Amino acid sequence: PSPPGMRKLVISTNVAETSVTIGGIRHVIDTGVVKVRTHHPTTGLDVLKVEKISKAQAWQRTGRAGRECPGKCYRTYTTDEFDRMKEMPIPEIQRCSLAGVALQLLAIGVDITSFDFMDKPPKESVDVAVACLEKLGAVKGSPPQLTTLGRTMSLFPLDPRFTKVLLASVEHKCLEEALTVIALLSGESVFLEPPQKREQAHAARA
Fold this sequence. Notes:
Layout: E1 27-30, E2 33-40, E3 45-52, H1 55-63, E4 72-75, H2 79-83, H3 99-107, H4 123-136, E5 139-140, E6 145-146, H5 148-153, H6 160-171, H7 175-185, H8 198-205
Helix pairs in contact: 3-4, 6-7
């Protein structure tokens, strides 16, 4: 609880939508956006990207206010923007690369090609994930089995391609440079483009 005569201000990620209940919250300010992991078609990698939330997420955020006492939710977007939102968020397993999931499942002895997912991803995504792991030397055979390298790679909480780069960078003595490149590839562009200064931003980068 906050000291007498003082307000408690909580700045949170979307984990507070459903996973955490914080006592004493009377007001919620909903920005209408969320940072999610999604597949980048150009690089073929997963990145953290800021996107609009769904209606279900908006109502979850509204529900954080007034759980223990009367409260209000202030949304920083219009009713029209709310009406254009998706009804439900897309499950992560249907919008991200499955290479990491396949590696983790194989590490515990589960074949991803026959696993019964709750939100079943397209078969093409599963095939691409297995092919990716084969190219990296992490799996071999049919059904796919982990190699010694794959077993080591499964210990890293990273995209398997990033893990392979890290392991190779130790051998080539360029770990610091590899970490920098991986950090840059893991998020959106490091260049800021304010809407009102987009042309100036493009000119500065040209």
